[in-house]
Design goal:
With 280 residues, the chain is of the alpha/beta class. The chain has twelve helices and ten strands. It has two domains: 195 residues, P-loop containing nucleotide triphosphate hydrolases (Rossmann fold, 3-Layer(aba) Sandwich); 70 residues, no CATH class. Helix 7 packs parallel to helix 8. Bound molecules: adenosine-5'-triphosphate (ATP) and magnesium ion. The site of adenosine-5'-triphosphate has 12 residues, from strand 2 and helix 1.
């Protein structure tokens, strides 16, 4: 059974030149615990796609239509209160720049604990304890002490870890990560990718991972969707798409990618991993 089923999703924005169809009849599915990467160049509609599902686009001016069933609830037509409950508890999001999503005036521990306070009505002390444990789990050294700091006292990579702790603390069924490593340097990017992968496997969380970097997405996700001009031009398993891209745009993405060789090597391990999984 699918955890998320998106059908015929359209998002339009009014512009001076007329309606802009930013998301054009998009459809995709995701099973529990599965990983889907959405890849495409800047402006192709990746963020608008997931923001519309989460009710994060201002409507108006945006117009959203279609269906998006998550565990039996249509995210696009359910009451706002239902969507608020799902968001943050069953579906969490992390974004490119943690600084814009963290409150500079609030201690890190209280921010990480907030979803628990809202969704699980835990006491302040119990929520803080869980928050410190969550910060430990994402690899923040000396978490009990650092939890009392404010976001500006953390490096970019550590702030992204804080965001991941906050996103995972309610043990969501789906994590949506929109370019979570783009603002980080390469070494830190690697660590954050590893962390997301580890958490995904340990908790069996489904993940939608958005990036303009095909190699990054191919490494983290078993399924891929390629977007261009608001259209999902190609979908399939990562292995199939890398090996036999059907759409010229995908072939272009693969061809012009400087890390293609490296991705090819990783493909080997991904295939081995899938083969091992299928034997189980
Ligand atoms: N609030 C808005 N009002 C008008 N147009 C918008 C709005 N938000 C996004 N768009 C337009 O929708 C299209 C898709 O944007 P989107 O942010 O989804 O791209 P993206 O694939 O996430 O790109 P990036 O890789 O740069 O994040 C773009 O043409 C963008 O200009
Ligand atoms: Mg985006």
């Amino acid at each position: 059974m699918n955890l998320l089923e998106v059908e015929d999703l359209c998002v339009t924005f009014p512009t001076r030149e007329g309606e802009l169809l930013a998301v054009d009849h998009v459809g995709f599915q995701l099973k529990a615990g599965e990983t889907l990467g959405i890849v495409g160049e800047s402006g192709s509609g990746k963020s608008v796609t997931v923001s519309s599902l989460m009710g994060l686009l201002p409507t108006p001016p945006a117009r959203v239509s279609g269906r998006a069933r998550f565990a039996g609830t249509d995210l696009l037509s359910c009451p706002p209160a239902t969507l608020r409950k799902i968001r943050g508890r069953k579906i969490s999001m992390i974004f490119q720049d943690p600084m814009t999503s963290l409150n500079p005036y609030q201690r890190v521990v209280d921010q990480v604990a907030e979803p628990l306070r809202i969704h699980q009505k835990l006491s302040a002390a119990a929520a803080r304890k869980r928050a410190v444990a969550a910060l430990e789990a994402v690899g923040i050294p000396d978490a009990a002490r650092r939890a009392r700091c404010h976001p500006h006292e953390f490096s970019g990579g550590m702030r992204q870890r804080v965001m991941i702790a906050m996103a995972m603390i309610t043990e969501p069924e789906l994590l949506i990560a929109d370019e979570p490593t783009t603002a980080l340097d390469v070494t830190v990017q690697r660590q954050i990718l590893d962390l997301i992968q580890t958490l995904q496997r340990e908790h069996g969380t489904a993940v939608i991972f958005i990036s303009h970097d095909l190699a990054v997405v191919a490494e983290v996700c078993r399924h891929l969707a390629v977007m261009r001009n608001g259209v999902m031009v190609e979908q399939g398993t990562t292995v199939d798409i890398m090996r036999n891209p059907k759409h010229p745009y995908t072939r272009g993405l693969l061809k012009c990618h400087p890390a293609l060789h490296e991705a090819g090597e990783r493909l080997q391990t991904l295939e081995e991993w899938m083969a091992a999984e299928e034997m189980e």
